[in-house]
Specification:
mainly alpha; Arc Repressor Mutant, subunit A; 2 domains; elongated; DNA-binding; DNA-binding transcription factor activity
């Protein structure tokens, strides 16, 4: 019998990076960002105390990697061949797809976002900047949709963007609080359809 081939260096790096990221999210959700050390993250992930420093350089750098990956999956797309309506709705669909593909990781990252309420250092500023960026992307998409005719709702784009952000945060919080009673994918699908109908005037 042939023996399974050994994993490549790249595969080992990817696995260790993911395990460190998951351990960091879990610990921050349990203890808070400021109370979580790089050494604890390495141990929780099953590695040495120095693994975070060896792989990422610092706890802050690991956090940046985690948030960039999450934000890249949820952000408003910039493809020129999509309508303003499609771009405005894209974060809802991306969040739904994320929930379907990796609900455990998404709940952990969303919990990390809410942890920013109790953190006055790096985490709060980082999350605030991301939310501002996302809201601005939605606002611009609404303005573009009103200009290209894909959105017939002529309310102020800032109002629409703020409403979408607040609603999305509320749904996320309800899901994190009790995932057994909230079908997040179904909720996001219904919300997407409702927003699409309102923005196109078909509601």
């Amino acid at each position: 019998m042939s023996t399974p081939s050994r994993r490549s260096q790249r595969e080992r790096v990817e696995e260790s990076s993911r395990r460190l990221a998951e351990a960091a999210i879990e610990l921050i959700a349990e203890k808070g960002y400021s109370n979580t050390t790089a050494q604890e993250i390495g141990i929780r992930a099953g590695y040495s105390r120095a693994m975070v420093r060896e792989r990422f350089g610092s706890k802050e750098a690991l956090l940046e990697v985690i948030l960039r990956d999450y934000e890249g999956r949820i952000d408003v797309p910039r493809e020129p061949d999509t309508s303003g309506l499609q771009r405005a709705l894209a974060p809802i669909l991306a969040l739904r797809d994320f929930a379907a593909e990796d609900p455990r990781l998404l709940r952990a990252v969303l919990s990390l976002n809410f942890e920013a309420l109790h953190d006055h250092d790096v985490l709060r500023g980082r999350i605030r900047a991301w939310l501002v960026q996302l809201a601005d992307g939605i606002r611009k998409a609404v303005v573009e949709g009103q200009a290209d005719g894909s959105i017939s709702d002529h309310r102020d784009a800032d109002e629409v963007g703020s409403e979408l952000m607040a609603t999305g945060i509320g749904y996320a919080y309800a899901w994190i609080l009790d995932p057994r009673t909230v079908d997040f994918e179904a909720v996001l699908t219904r919300w997407h359809d409702l927003v699409a109908a309102r923005l196109t005037g078909s509601a």
